[in-house]
Every structure is written in C-alpha cells, then in structure tokens.
Amino acid sequence: MDNFIYSIPTTAYFGKGQISILGETLNAHGASKVLLAYGGGSIKTNGIYDAVIDQLAKAGITLIELSGIMPNPRVESVEEGIRLYLENGCDFILAVGGGSTLDACKAIAAGVMHDGPVTDLFVNESGLSDIAAAAPIATILTMSGTGSEMDMGAVITVGEDHKKMVLLHPLVNPRFSILDPEYTFTVPEIHSMAGVADILCHLMEQYFTPDVNTKVQDRMNEGVMMAVLEDAPKILADPKDYDARANIMWASSMALAGFQFMLGKPGFSFPLHGMGHELSSKYDMTHGVTLALLTPSWMRHTMKIAPQYLAIFARFARNVLDVREADDSKAAEEGVKRLEAFYSAIKMPANLREAGVREEDLDFMAEKAVERGNLGILTSIGKDEALQIMRDAF
Ligand code: NZQ
Ligand code: ZN
Q: Ligand 1 — pocket residues by CB below 6 A?
C-alpha cells in the first residue's frame, strides 16, 4: 500500500430536519451576505427554498440569488455567479441542489479569488487545479449521486463542443453540507436511479485497480456497493422510503469523501467517467446514465485484454453480487451479467442505441475521450480501445 493523506474537511449534518442548523452555522462561519445558488426551480416547488430563506432571515443574513443552473452546468452560469458574488460583495456561497448546482458553486468559489478566466482553473481529471484561495462554500444536497457534497471536485461544461472540464482542489471542499434524505423524496425516478448508477460507478472506479493489498479500502467499498444494490430498488418501489433514501444519500457522500476507497493505490484515473463525459458533451445525456451504459462493456473489454486482473472481477462478483462459481473467468462474467440485470431493474437504457446515440458519432466521441491522454489504470485506453468499448455498448 502506498503512503497517503486522508482529509475530509467537510462537516456533514445528516438527517431529517438538519436545515435547522443552517442559520447559526453560517453565522459561525462569519457569513453575512450569501450567494444563494440553485437549479431550474425544483427547490421552489418542494419547500426547500422556503426553509432556506427562513433560516437566512432568522440569522440576519442577506442574500443574492443565482438561479437556473442546468444539469451538466455551463461555464456561463459560473461566470454569472462570479460576477454576482463580486459586484454584491458576498462573503459566502450556499449551493442548494444536485451535483450540477454544487459543482457550479465550487467553480464560482475558486473563480472569485482568481485574477483571470475561471477556465484557467480546469485540469485533466488526474491533476489538481492551480488554486491559491477559494471563497467559503456550503451545500444543501437535494439529490444523491455525485458525491460533490463531500468532495473536492467540480465538473463544468465549456465551449461550443460542450467539453466537460474538471476542477479539483481541497480548497473547494464544502465547509459543511446539510444532508436531509427527505429532501430527495421529490427527485424524479430517472434522476434518482441515474444517481444510483453514478454512486456505484464511483465505487467501482476506485475498486478496479491493481491489487496492492488495500484490504480495508476494498472491503469497505464492497459493503457500500452492497448497500446501494440492496436499497436502490426500494426507492423505485417507494420514493418516500426514508431509510432507503438515507442509505443511498450516505453512500453518495461516502463514495468520494477524501477518495477514501482508493487511498494507497497507484495512480488515479476514472476511465468510465472519461468516456461517459463525452456522451454528455455530445447528447447532454444524464451523467449516471452514461456510466451505466458503458460499464459492462468496459468490464468485458478489461477482462479480455488484461486477464491477469480477472481475479479482481471475480472477487467483485462473489463478494458484491453473491456469485457462487469457483472458476474466476465464469464468476467474473456472471458478475457482469448480474450488474446488467441490476441496471435494467433500475430502468437504465439497455444500450447506446436505445439511449439515442448515433453510430456515426462513436468515432468522434472515442477520439475526444482520450484527447488529453489515455484513460485507465488496469489497462491503457487509447482511441481504438475507447471506440471498441463504445461499439460493444452500442
Ligand atoms: O435544477 P432543478 O430544478 O433542481 O432539477 C434537478 C435537475 O433537473 C433535479 N432535482 C435535483 N434535486 C431535486 C430535483 N428534482 C426534484 N426534487 C429534488 N429534490 O434533478 C435534475 C438533475 O440534477 P443535477 O444536479 O444535474 O444531477 P446530479 O446530482 O446527478 O449532477 C450531475 C452533474 O454532476 C457532475 C456530472 O458530470 C454532472 O455535470 N459530477 C460531479 C462530480 C463531483 N463534483 O465530484 C462527480 C461526478 O462523477 C459527476 O461528474
Ligand atoms: Zn460520476
């Protein structure tokens, strides 16, 4: 196991009614004028907005609003937020929403302290952004999935080709996050399940790495994956199942908190995310859906060209998906089949074609996925490999 630093600088206030700490906690952080950011308006119809405003009023905090942050958030929203923050002399950022709103706010937090375009701060997925300071930020999570509520990342869509760029730095970790599972009761089914697919993928991207005897990280990871597989269908059956929503929310937060499941492992590469982002760029596809679409073919591709790692896929199948098969190759394949059945049960599209992808776009997307370098830890995915994985998923 390699040396590592483990730090999660975000305080989580988890559970029903935790909004009650918002005003006093903002006061404790010295906030007096808050940039309140949210998405397309769901928080106005489900009561979350009113609860936030009530807390800010009681705490004597004034606010400036940034609304309309869209899924796969655009850099233009970030630039508008930077302008609003600076022109109005804000001193704190409060993000209320899903990953898109949270990510936009993290980029705003870094952008207001940077003398130059915010795009200077975007990096390859693997490197840290060059950030010297960031405004303080807190989040109120309204949908589970990205882990943005407890991590140091943000993904922003830039330019005419809608490239998804990453900002990564501990300075943009939220100071605190309010995580109330009840706030996710109103998330539409497709987004709830796409969030589940996202959580699962974050766990798998950290799990499928060369085996360097990181037993604690891997056994914990398996436990979180099992909880996700068990409780996602309960949300489908009853969107107001508090305990299922709570388990999925905490899984979302734990999956990327301090990247804890890949501590001590060699390298950092989320190849499924690298390829999935291209589907979102081209088709504005929901993030978690892109990952569910690509994962099984990525697994089969890796098992085929790097059989030395079959044992890891077999272990995943046995420990997480309860496969009882002694032969590694058969166990691993059965694991992929069970995973496909799970994606089908949570209503993910069966393949890229069904998701509306055009075959003639695959080449372009494969090229874009690797334009800043090959992807992957178990294998090196260049354009040809990315294209093969996409074709198999088609
Ligand atoms: O905009 P509103 O009206 O709020 O509606 C949203 C949006 O339409 C809706 N929603 C959220 N909470 C709701 C709700 N509707 C009803 N009731 C609620 N309580 O859900 C829709 C999707 O929201 P969005 O924020 O886009 O979803 P998600 O949380 O999946 O975020 C996706 C973004 O996060 C990035 C993705 O690339 C994508 O851009 N990611 C960020 C990561 C990070 N920061 O670490 C890691 C991830 O891998 C991911 O890349
Ligand atoms: Zn993700």
A: 39-42, 46, 71-73, 97-101, 103, 142-143, 145-148, 151, 153-155, 183-184, 186-188, 191, 195, 198, 256, 273, 287-288
Q: Which tokens belong to 221?
A: 């990871």
**307 CB-near residues (< 8 Å, 6+ apart):** 329
Q: Which atom in ligand 1 lies closest to the alpha carbon of residue 288? A: 30
Among 108, 146, 192, residue to substitute to test ligand 1 (most atoms within 8 Å of Cβ):
146
Backbone angles phi, psi at 186, to 5 degrees: -95, 0
Atom number of ligand 1 nearest to Cα 106: 44
Residue type, 76: E
Taking CA atoms only, the protein residue closest to ligand 1 atom 13 is 187
In testing the pocket of ligand 1, which one of 100, 121, 149 has its CB within 8 Å of the most ligand atoms? Answer: 100
**Which segments of the chain does DSSP mark as H helices, in order?**
22-28, 42-45, 48-58, 75-87, 99-111, 189-207, 215-237, 242-256, 271-283, 287-305, 310-321, 328-345, 362-369, 383-393
In Å, how far from its chain's centre is CA 76? 21
How far CA 184 is from CA of 56, 96, 180, 228, in Å, comes to 21, 12, 8, 15
Q: Per residue in 155-195, pLDDT tens?
A: 999 998 899 999 999 999 999 999 999 999 999 999 999 99
The three-state DSSP-derived secondary structure of 127-188 is CCCCCCCCCCEEEEECCCCCCHHHCCEEEEEECCCCEEEEEECHHHCCCEEEECHHHHCCCC
Domains in the chain, ordered, with CATH?
11-183 (3.40.50.1970), 189-393 (1.20.1090.10)
Give the pTM. 0.97
pLDDT tens-digit profile of 90-128?
A: 999 999 999 999 999 999 999 999 999 999 999 865 689
CA distance readout (Å), 140 to 35, 180, 248: 13, 8, 16
What distances in angstroms separate CA 84 from CA 35, 60, 97, 169, one per listed residue?
A: 8, 20, 19, 23
Q: How far is the CA of 288 from the centre of ligand 2 (A)?
A: 6
Pocket test for ligand 1, best of 155, 206, 235 (most atoms within 8 A of CB): 155
